[in-house]
Write a structure and sequence with these properties.
Blueprint: H1 2-14, H2 17-35, H3 41-44, H4 50-68, H5 73-78, H6 80-85, H7 91-110, H8 114-123, H9 131-156, H10 162-184, H11 194-199, H12 202-210, H13 216-239
Length: 240
């Protein structure tokens, strides 16, 4: 598993893919947080990272599928998956190795954003920030991106076309993040099943953790989705 992860990381950073992904994530968030009118913290008037944590999931909806789209699609297209199967690794180890590499890249992209925390702290009038809320939001954002990575890995195992894998992944991440929340707001569900429908979406649990309270139910939800999609990926590989 570790050898697969190292191989994937080497591929990410031997080309511009990994660097562009990280730089793009940081630039988009920095522009939104410090430059763009009405969204930057100077116009907002409060020393808070709420705009960053509101935008980042939408950025990850596209960046994580871009990272994962070639995980298995390129292996199928080039025929190297047959070679990969000859190695002394189980399908489960192959899946986890590729998934782990994507999660590491996500973690690397999040680490530089800690500078935003120090910036916000220095700009605050009384020198205080909501450290509990920020910590919870970072945990939630990492778990959310990890779920997107699992979804995108599964989508990549469905096709040999990386572009199709990217499009399907982005759509699936969008539906699971925002779709259930949108459906719950339909008049037919108001006052009945709206709360339970909203609970099925990632956004509900992400917002819950972002309040600074790490609820066991939210953690179980995220890890269950990760396991479910990686298990489905392994089942797809067994059919190849």
């Amino acid at each position: 598993m570790i050898s697969i992860a190292k191989k994937e990381l080497h591929q990410f950073f031997s080309s511009l893919t990994g660097y562009i992904t990280i730089i793009l994530f940081l630039v988009v968030n920095a522009l939104y947080l410090f430059i763009l009118k009405d969204s930057n913290i100077f116009d907002f008037g409060y020393a808070t990272l709420i705009n960053f944590f509101d935008l980042s999931p939408w950025v990850f909806i596209f960046l994580v599928p871009a990272l994962a789209m070639r995980s298995f699609a390129d292996e199928f297209k080039t025929g190297t998956f047959e070679t990969l199967k000859t190695r002394p690794l189980t399908k489960w180890q192959i899946v986890w190795g590729k998934y782990l590499a994507i999660v590491i890249v996500i973690l690397i992209s999040l680490i530089p954003t800690l500078l935003y925390v120090f910036t916000i702290h220095s700009l605050s009038a009384d020198g205080g920030i909501d450290s509990g809320g920020i910590t919870g939001s970072y945990i939630g954002l990492f778990l959310l991106a990890s779920v997107f990575a699992a979804i995108s890995t599964w989508c990549s195992s469905l096709t040999s076309n990386a572009v199709i894998a990217f499009l399907v992944s982005a759509f699936a991440c969008l539906i699971l993040y925002f779709g259930f929340s949108a459906i719950s707001k339909l008049p037919v569900f108001t006052g009945n099943a709206d709360y339970y429908i909203e609970m099925l979406g990632i956004d509900f649990h992400y917002q819950s953790i972002s309040r600074g309270v790490v609820d066991t139910r939210d953690i179980i939800y995220f890890f269950s989705l990760i396991f479910l999609f990686l298990f489905a990926t392994q089942k797809n590989l067994n059919k190849k």
